[in-house]
Amino acid sequence: MTHETLRPPAMTSLPVEAPQVAVLILTHNHENYIGACIESIVRSALKRYHIWVLDGGSTDATPDVVADIARKTGNITLLRQPPNGGRTSDYSQRLIDESTGDYLVLMSGDDLFGPTDGIERAIAALETTPGLALVIPRMVYLMQDPARTAPPCHEAGLLTALRSGDADMVLRQHLYRTVSRIFLQAMVLRRSDVDAFGGFDTEMLADDFAFVLRLFRYLSETGRAFRFDESSIWLYRVHASNVHRDPVRQFTLIAEVVARYVPADARRHFHWDAVVIENHAQLAAIQAKAFDLLGKAGAMRALRPTMRPTARAAARRGDVRLICRLLLGKGVPLLQRVTAARYLPKAMARGLMK
C-alpha cells in the first residue's frame, strides 16, 4: 500500500523549535466541518503546537480545505492514505507515529473544541504534575438537525467515576459494564504514557473503545493519574454521516473489544447496545461473529437486546422472512423465538397491505 504525505509549500519542514503539542486530526469526507475543527485549535492560546491531519481517502474537498488552511497558518501537515476498510485504529496510530511533541491532542475532523482555554489548562496541568497521564474534557453534543434534542452525554454513574479520579472505578463501573461513553477525541495525553501501554490496537476495528480500555487498565496497573476537567468543553457534532449504518460492523466493533479486553467474569454483566438487523444476511453474519468471539452463552447475552428492535422494525416493513428466521433459525434461544412470534402477525398483516 502506498501512502502520500503532503505538506503545503509554505511548510516544507517543522519549525526550528520542535512542537510541544501534537494535535492529531483524523478525517474523512468532512469538507463542511474540518475548517471549524482546525480553527478551534488555531484560535486557542497554544504557542508551541503542530497539527497533523490524516485524510483517510476522502472523496470530497476535505484535503483541499486542509491544504488551503495550511498555506495560511503554516503549521499543518496533511497525510493522505487510501481507504482501508474502516480500520481507523491504523490511521490513528499512524498519526501518533508520524508526529512529534510531548503531548497529544486527539480529534476527529467533524468535532471542535468549545470557546474555553481547556487545552492550555490541560497542558499546564501535565507540565506541573509528573504523575498525571491525561486530561479528559467534558463532551457536549452539537446537533446539526435543530429538530433533534441533544441526549445527555454522560449518565450519573459515569460522571461520578470520572470525578473520582479513580481508574479502577472507571473500569469496574463503566468500561467493564457498557459500551464506552468516554471518547478519545479532545483528550490531552502525555505521549510517554501512550507509548508505555502501546497506543492503538491496530488489530481492532474499533479505535476509541479499545484505546480507552487499554489506557485505563494501564492507569490502574501503574497508579498513573487522570483528570476530568468539566470546564473544558469538547463539541461532538451529530450529523447524518457519523451515525452507524452497518449493524454488522457496529456489533463487531464492540464484540471484538469485549472479547479481548473485558474480563470473562465481567462479561456476564455487560450491557450491550441494541443494533437493528435489516436482513437475513446481516443476522447470519452477526450471529456467527457473536458465537466466534463470545461463545454460546456470551453470544446469547450479546444478541438479546437486538432481537426486539429488529423484530419490531421487520414487522413495520412487513418482512415476514426475517421474522421467520428469528423464529425458526437453528440454535435460536427461546426468548428470541417468543419475541419473533409476537411480531409475526403484524409483519404478515403489513405484507398483505403492500
Q: What's the number of domains?
A: 2
The overall pLDDT, averaged over residues, is 88
Which outline best applies?
Answer: globular
Secondary-structure arrangement, i.e. CATH architecture of the largest domain: Alpha-Beta Complex
Biggest pleated sheet: 9 strands, mixed
Q: Which homologous superfamily in CATH is the superfamily of the largest domain?
A: Spore Coat Polysaccharide Biosynthesis Protein SpsA, Chain A
Tell me the β content: 15-25%
The H-and-E topology, N to C, reads as EEHEHEHEEHEHHEHHEHHHHH
Instruction: Please write the CATH class name of the largest domain.
Output: Alpha Beta
Tally of extended strands? 9
- In CATH terms, what is the fold-level topology of the largest domain? Spore Coat Polysaccharide Biosynthesis Protein SpsA, Chain A
Domain Glycosyltransferase 2-like: 23-141
Keywords: Transferase
GO molecular function: transferase activity
Protein name: Glycosyltransferase involved in cell wall biosynthesis
